[in-house]
Amino acid sequence: MKFFIDNLPIIFPYDRIYPEQYAYMCDLKRTLDATGHCVLEMPSGTGKTVSLLSLIVSYQQFYPTKRKLIYCSRTVPEIEKALAELKRLMAYRIKFAETAEQKVKEESFMGLGLTSRKNLCIHPDVSKEKKGKVVDARCRDLTNSAACEKGRADPGSVELCDWHENLGKGEPGSLIPPGIWTLADVLQHGRENKTCPYFTVRRMMPFVDVIIYSFHYLLDPKVAEQVSKELSKDAIVVFDEAHNIDNVCIESLSIDLTRPMLDSAARSVVKLGEKIEEIKKTDAAKLQDEYARLVEGLQESVADASDEDAFMANPVLPDDLLKEAVPGNIRKAEHFVAFLKRFVEYLKTRMRVLHVVAETPLSFLQHLKDITYIERRPLRFCAERLQSMIRTLELNRLDEHSALQKVASFATLVATYEKGFLLILEPFETDNATVPNPIFHFTCLDPSLAIKPVFEHFSSVVITSGTISPLDMYPKMLQFTPVVQETYPMTLTRNAFLPLVITRGSDQVAISSRFEVRNDPAVVRNFGSILIEYSKIVPDGIVAFFPSYLYMESIVAAWNDMGILNEVWKNKLIFVETPDANETSIALENYRRACDNGRGAVLLSVARGKVSEGIDFDHNYGRAVIMFGVPYQYTESRILKARLEYLRDAYRIRESEFLGFDAMRNAAQCVGRVLRGKTDWGLMVFADKRFARADKRAKLPRWINQYITEVASNLSTDMALTLSKLFMRTISQNPNENQTGVSLWTLEDIEKAQAKQKEQALLMEQQQEQEDDMDVDYGDGGIDDDVILGLDV
Amino acid sequence: MPTTLCSAKASYKKQAGTLELTDSHLTWTQEGKKVPAVRVPHLEASSLFCSKEGAAQVRLKLGLVNDEAGHNFTFTSPSAVAHVEREAFKQELTNIISRNRSAAPTPLQKPTPLSTPAKTPAPIPSTSRATSVASDSRTPILSGIDAATDFRLRKKVLLSNPELLALHKELVMSGHITESEFWDGREHLLLAEAAAEGQKRGRPGQLVDPRPQTVEGGEVKIVITPQLVHDIFDEFPVVAKAYNDNVPNKLSEAEFWKRYFQSKLFNAHRASIRSSATQHVVKNDPIFDKYLEKDDDELEPRRARNEVSDLFINIGATLEDHVETGNEKDVTMQAGRQRGALPLIRKFNEHSERLLNSALGEVPPAKRRRIDSGIDDDEDAYAQITLDDLRDPEAMSGITLQMQDRERYFEGQLARSASEQAGGEVVDVRAAFAELKHGFRGWETRFSQFRIDKKAGDAALDSMTQNVSARLDIRTRKTDLPPTLFRQLTTCQTAANEFLRQFWTSLYPPPTTTSSGATPSQTAAKAAKMAGYLSKTREKVEALVRAGQLEGVEPERVEVAMKPLLDAVEHALAFYRARSAKTSTLKTA
């Protein structure tokens, strides 16, 4: 259908629209008009992605400025889904285009998705590699400009990638016909035309209207530097499913070093030294050239690198880059190698300490200087200097040197940032371990650091998710001021989902995943009996989430020994998330088959685990979700403790507040996966007595919380079962009442709502005028020019 | 007379008799009786249990498809003879059972995971653990059903539905209507029954996990049944391999099992995390330890599998989407730290997959690889993302109304509306509004003068009270019709209803009749017959009234009770008369 928001024509690829989708689009448009940032929470499964894309594409196609859309999501399944959603939208727009020119315009609209080489490679050998790092390295060996030059000049001398070579024959900018290409489509196109899908996407990026990739490509400076630096300022940035965005920010600036890594780095240093000696004999001019370049300054050497050559970008944020020449003491290759060697040796000695050390970067640098005389300034250039040297030496198989690259990144980061970071050395993995396995954590504590350049660079940043409550937490943590901050309730003509809080088993023993009681047999049995009983009454799929892998693995074993799983086997098949991603995907595939077939299955997985992110359990894939326990983070973790302390000191966020918020956003995220559309239905079972507390529930998104009744907030297992049965009986009946007009809007309903809005605006304006008469200074009534413009229409 | 495969003296429920196995049934006849007391068709046999060799009594237990408890027979001949007899029965029954199983719905050879040895070493020629009813090629479409099955289905339906049975007795047995007439219009019941019969029972989901029972004296006992043996071979092909390699050359069968259950191999197969703890107590066993595999407890599974190509559920793709960043996860969030649980978890996933494959067949690898991403795949992908309820259901194509002389209809409409328009005077809105406004003037004063007559209010209240009390009266009065009369009334009612149903269906046959290929003359004859029956209804009711009087029930009550029925019958008869009059006039004309 087609309707107008103010004067912007919106094409929405359905005949009806949910009221929340309409409201969401209005607020989104407000943000774009104001060129500001916003935080929007829209109930899961109410078509957030399609509303977002529908509005933004309409916006792009209507205004001549053609602002590019950068759409970021968390996982590849979500990226692929967003691309499919966009493809469907564009097909609809083409089909219903009113004029011929309009149709041409729609057809030339272009959208692509980007992911790693590992996921996009179709080279018969390279794509077989298991590790992404190896794929990257081998791909670079086959495609870097030096190799290409050699290979083209003298065919056969160097192995090249045919798929990449074929790409060079095409016109840049039209390597792939316009339209929307999902990742699967791009792969297919590559296979058919024998071209490289990865570089097709990379080279087409300046020409597309929409690019969809994951958070890291924008937030992680190492990747963003290569991929996203050329994006224009007026682009619209969307972070979808952004409830964990703070973690992604922190991750992108944190590094771990282990002893095997340092050993490998030391070996790499030796190899580099040998290589330098070799080159000195054969091609000393090369090193001279590099030296000369470095004396002049670093900038040009980076700028002329093409996509194929880039392998390791600077790990620090663009603003913190030093725009000056590399210090003299590491300009010479052999000096730099010696420098690296000393630094690695220093780190190795630090690792020998057998007690936990936590220190600030400043104290680390001081100690480093005292012991090794390494200054802070050359350390800051470590990553760039290494990059330049590797390029000069034309090294192959860079994956073998990845540990050294990591050390160099670590050096640069530690020397660049004083605030918001902490170094923690943990000699033992667990408290009762006796064999040391030291890890040196360099951890970022402040999520606002990594996202700051994004907010500064781009004019409109949209942060949205199904579960992003409490809303004010995000602006606080990420340090930005949104122009719009909104959460939408879910309008339903009948309750499509039933949230239940089970606080005790049928035997009245309180259940909880609290550390002290979680392994109590009574609690384990009561958790088990919840699963048994629900496997009896719920059709098709049930998904159960545990607070951690450790707990899930131990409870699965315990349940098996107690005979609980045997009872479940009688009713449903059982699938469990495993450490291996592919194995889990296969389990998931089989789980879906079992649900489709009617046999029914139970999937046991972990909140914040692999499955909880990005996999939907809509319709028959999830008729019930059971959350066993509150998914708190492991509070004994030193990194978490440091982060909590930082949040308290820097942003006045209390520890308990953050922990509760974090647990509830993850619980809500797990539970929200069951709904897709308003005809879908599902049970949401929160099994822990701590969910009954009002302060916990208040942290759930409003759209879930509003449906938790007083009765359903404190149940025993048998009471919950009775309620669930009742619910399923009612929901399985055909809905008599027409949803249209209430939870589903037709075009007329939209127009009605708009008329009402205008009336109210008019009324407010009149009031405003009256008030203005009384008090001239009183301004800012919240009506923007657009509303007044709209009135004239 | 069916041929007898074997027979023996055996007692059943402590009564002596003869057990016989024919080529279609297993029967047991009590001594001195001719009709067998137990008669089990081969198809129903699902499992077999035998008493231990050397036990005091030689017993045989047969489990049935719908009844796990089954039948227990004790061979009463002298011990040595009994054994021989039992073996004969066992042999035959095992074959029958395995035949039943292998005729399972999808007779797919279950793939043996791991590298399969050259021959599949299952001593029992059965492939699937599914205790499924052998799926005979019966289709639920009635037309193709032979008379015998049809009869059986009808019987089953009637037996499961007492009311229908009573009606059947009343009408068909008494010869009022024929069998086929009775079932005409009730095909759905038969269809449902046939479908229910045709449904196959899947494999039970439980893991094969023989748990030892502890008998007194600290000894451990595991009861081995042929069923269990088969299940073990199915679940753990390596045991089947061991069996094939060693029995009977190196080990006797009994010894084989004894050693297996004491071996590390068995402990590795047991679905328990505790078994690893008992491992050091278990003795080494040179034969079985050869077959021992390393525990599958690494983070990556030992058996590499193809990647899932569906990007919507590919979790691995996300891991490889960008370089690893950030600090290591805390201890609780590192998957696979409980290494003991990993083999167990893998076992669950594999077991579930095996069950699924046994029912649905393997996922063809072609489907996994998404090579031809044509339109179909797009549709498939869209199906996963579209919101169905946002589609306008009314926008679907309706059924166009077929009308004769459509133009005339519309012309007529047009003409009429035109004439109306011409005749209808144009209303002056302004004047009408003014008039209305005038009419409203002073409504407040008039409203205050408004009085309601007391009498009318009282009357209304009165009637309401009466209504309530009447209802209450009825509610409190019990249905005190004598039970025999009441039963008669209901039978009369249902019979008449059935006649009515037959009558109307013969006049207005449903548009999609599946079975009745009756000619118009037949239906007319049927209608006449039904009308004849219906016309007798009044007499019947009168007889009931009289009978009621004898039992002391006021005739009015019976009449009231039967009134709606009589009305319906009257209506039908009137209609029939009118119709037949019309047809006769037509004919005469």
TrEMBL record, chain A:
It catalyses: ATP + H2O = ADP + phosphate + H(+). Its main location: nucleus. Its cofactor is [4Fe-4S] cluster. GO terms for biological process: nucleotide-excision repair; positive regulation of mitotic recombination; transcription by RNA polymerase II. Residues 7-291 form the Helicase ATP-binding domain. Coiled coil: none annotated. Belongs to the helicase family. RAD3/XPD subfamily. This is DNA 5'-3' helicase. It comes from Suillus placidus.
TrEMBL record, chain B:
Keywords: Nucleus, Repeat, Transcription, Transcription regulation. Residues 100-135 are annotated as: Disordered. It is found in: Nucleus. Residues 125-135 have a biased composition (Polar residues). The keyword NAD does not apply. GO terms for biological process: DNA-templated transcription; nucleotide-excision repair. Pfam families: BSD, PH_TFIIH. InterPro entries: BSD_dom, BSD_dom_sf, PH-like_dom_sf, Tfb1/GTF2H1, TFIIH_BTF_p62_N. Residues 227-268 form the BSD domain. Gene3D superfamilies: 6.10.140.1200, Pleckstrin-homology domain (PH domain)/Phosphotyrosine-binding domain (PTB) (2.30.29.30). GO terms for cellular component: transcription factor TFIIH core complex. Belongs to the TFB1 family. This is BSD domain-containing protein. The lineage of its organism: Eukaryota, Fungi, Dikarya, Basidiomycota, Agaricomycotina.
